[in-house]
Amino acid sequence: MFCIASKVNTKRGAVQETYLDNKQFMEMLKISPRTAQTWRDEGKISFSQVGNKIYYKLSDIERTMQEYYNKSFAKK
């Protein structure tokens, strides 16, 4: 996992954010590159792009998964 904050010396105990690159994101969720692209295009997942490289905040991934969470259906 890639963490910019760990590379920077800070005097305060700031909360560090963990970033995943596109490959790590796809492996974590077991999705295809096309699905990742569709989610970005539809605004389902926030991302940062530096050059050709795409990064996702772990907290954004967790938030997205909670937002689209469906409870199991009740038995009838």
Task: Describe the structure concisely for a colleague.
The protein has 76 residues and is α+β, with helices and mostly antiparallel strands.
Can you characterise this structure?
The protein has about 80 residues and is α+β, with helices and mostly antiparallel strands. The longest helix has 10 residues. A three-stranded antiparallel β-sheet has the order 1-3-2. Helices cover about 35% and strands about 15% of the residues. Strand 2 and strand 3 form a beta hairpin. The mean pLDDT is about 85. The N and C termini lie far apart (about 45 Å). The protein is built from three helices and three strands. It has a domain of about 45 residues.
Task: Sum up the structure in keywords.
76 residues, alpha+beta, three-stranded antiparallel sheet, globular
Distance between the termini: 44 Å
The overall strand count is 3
- Work out the radius of gyration: 15 Å
Helix content: 25-40%
Element order: H for helix, E for strand: EHHEEH
